[in-house]
Specification:
The complex is a heterodimer of chains A (301) and B (173). Chain A has 301 residues and is of the alpha/beta class. Chain A has helices at residues 13-28, 49-61, 83-91, 106-113, 129-143, 161-170, 189-197, 231-237, 279-297, and strands at 39-44, 65-69, 96-101, 118-123, 150-154, 176-180, 202-205, 217-220, 256-258. Chain A folds into 2 domains: 31-127, Aspartate/ornithine carbamoyltransferase (Rossmann fold); 129-283, Aspartate/ornithine carbamoyltransferase (Rossmann fold), CATH 3.40.50. Chain A contains 9 helices and 9 strands. The longest helix of chain A has 19 residues, at 279-297. Classes of the chains: A alpha/beta (301), B mainly beta (173). The interface between A and B is medium-sized, with 18 and 16 residues.
């Protein structure tokens, strides 16, 4: 039975923990050519250099070969080929498809059409499960556990898919949430309902200063222009929060700052030098987690 | 009312049910009574054609009688569809729950209502509603829509299997 990873909800709690454990193994030993002879397609219908490089490095470090394209402009897709036909064609050649596509639900559909496992590397504003797993990995590595932590999510909590997926995944581990966002970008009701049903506590604020000192993880996000339909709304909120080193005087010793990157103005450069900055290491962790996802879905771990 | 046979009152009187829906029509020129078939009652008038579509009745060869904007004590205005010599599986009929949640199904045999059925909201719905998310794959490629129905405080909403967004059922009426 082929298994795909489209949404973080496709993984059980045990599967999440398993993948994180495998990632740790890959971090200790980065070169394990267990997929020698395999070919994996990285097909990116919209450009995302960061994610693509991370996935392609993961494939290479596992010893498999990569084929694919990094944006759809010069492919048969631009000539009007349907997603179904592209996926059917590609899945005849390869052992796995890693795909990114601007339309939401495209990866789920591809996984139903493909004869090989599909990994969703982002479908519009919907899901990006490898990001969620690397966030969990980073939390576990810095805190030594996933249970009973206080996570302060900051920034665009309305359109920011990373916060939504992280919230869903963390719900297995008895967390407490703080949602720091301006009125226009508050956490949507459906996610708060989800937490209510699971009896998970949360509080909301629009002040960045209010909960800096009582959280274990400060999860900062960028306000992404492309998610806004109204340019005026974007202008109003784009620079709403800016974290500086001087604000970190009384934070918990174990507190770590995460950010899915790239950042714009929401974290000052002077934060990089503090012991709380973890976002560059977090990005590096993406490599080990993606190696683990690929190895697990292909049945090698 | 669309009438394509013009049965006489004497025949209609044989069916209590048909008599009931006849109250405000001409005594002589009448709606066709069904000898055998299915009557779908209490359909919102504006969704009559959606119902025909969902049941694949657009190319049906059997006699179909449609009523729109009939007076109803319960609903104000309603629509009704009578299909001669056709009987449906529950799964087929339950698809209508989305566009006609209060519909009643009457099975007619030998001019009599032999069975009345209510619709049950199915857990999954395929190929009927449209996803309200403009960025959903189903709105750009030839992909059949698929939803899970969710009931919250008597309100039905649809969770898209693909984009994972919620479509409000009110948008469907
Ligand atoms: Zn959708």
């Amino acid at each position: 039975m082929k298994k795909s990873l489209i949404s973080i909800r496709d993984f059980t709690k045990d599967e999440i923990l398993h993948v994180l454990e495998v990632a740790r193994e890959f971090e200790q030993n980065r070169v394990q050519k267990i997929l020698e002879g395999k070919v994996i397609a990285c097909i990116f219908f919209e450009p995302s250099t960061r994610t693509r490089l991370s996935f392609e490095t993961a494939v290479n470090r596992l010893g498999a070969k990569v084929i694919g394209f990094s944006d759809a402009t010069n492919t048969s897709v631009s000539k009007g080929e349907t997603l179904k036909d592209t996926i059917k064609m590609v899945s005849n050649y390869v052992d796995m498809i890693i795909m990114r596509h601007p339309l939401e639900g495209s990866s789920r559909y591809a996984s139903e059409v493909a004869s090989v496992p599909v990994v969703n590397a982002g479908d519009g504003a919907n899901q990006h499960p490898s990001q969620t797993l690397l966030d969990l990995y980073s939390i576990k590595q810095t805190q030594g556990r996933l249970e009973d932590l206080t996570i302060n999510m900051v920034g665009d909590l309305k359109y920011g898919r990373t916060t939504h997926s992280l919230l869903q995944a963390m719900s297995f581990f008895n967390p407490r949430f703080i949602f720091t966002a301006p009125e226009e970008l508050k956490m949507p009701v459906e996610y708060k309902k989800f937490l209510d049903e699971k009896h998970i506590g949360y509080s909301e604020t629009n002040s960045l200063e209010e909960h800096l000192d009582d959280c274990d993880i400060l999860y900062m996000t960028r306000v992404q222009q492309e998610r806004f339909t109204d340019p005026m709304e974007y202008e109003k909120v784009k620079d709403v929060y800016r974290l500086e080193a001087s604000m970190l005087g009384n934070v918990k010793q174990n507190m770590k700052i995460l950010h899915p990157l790239p950042r714009v103005n929401e974290i000052d450069q002077d934060v990089d030098e503090t012991p709380y900055a973890y976002y560059f290491k977090q990005a590096e962790n993406g490599l080990y987690v993606r190696m683990a996802i690929i190895a697990y879905l292909l049945g090698y771990r | 009312m669309i009438d394509n046979l013009g049965y006489r009152q004497s025949i209609i009187n044989e069916s209590l049910y048909n008599n009931h829906i006849m109250t405000h029509t001409d005594k002589e020129l009448v709606v066709s009574a069904l000898e055998n078939g299915t009557v779908l009652d209490h359909i919102p008038s504006e969704n009559i054609f959606k119902v025909l579509e969902i049941l694949n009745l657009m190319d049906e060869k059997n006699r179909i009688t449609i009523g729109i904007n009939l007076n109803s004590k319960l609903f104000g205005k309603k629509g009704i569809i009578k299909i001669a010599d056709r009987f449906f599986q529950d799964e087929e009929l339950n698809k209508l729950a989305l566009v006609a949640p209060k519909a009643t199904v009457n099975i007619i045999r030998d001019f009599r209502v032999v069975e009345k059925r209510k619709l049950v909201m199915p857990h999954e719905i395929e190929g009927i509603a449209k996803c309200m998310n403009p960025k959903c794959i189903t709105n750009h490629q030839p992909v059949k829509t698929r939803f899970t129905t969710m009931e919250n405080d008597n309100e039905i909403s649809l969770l898209c299997h693909y984009c994972e967004k919620i479509t409000d059922i009110k948008g469907l009426y």
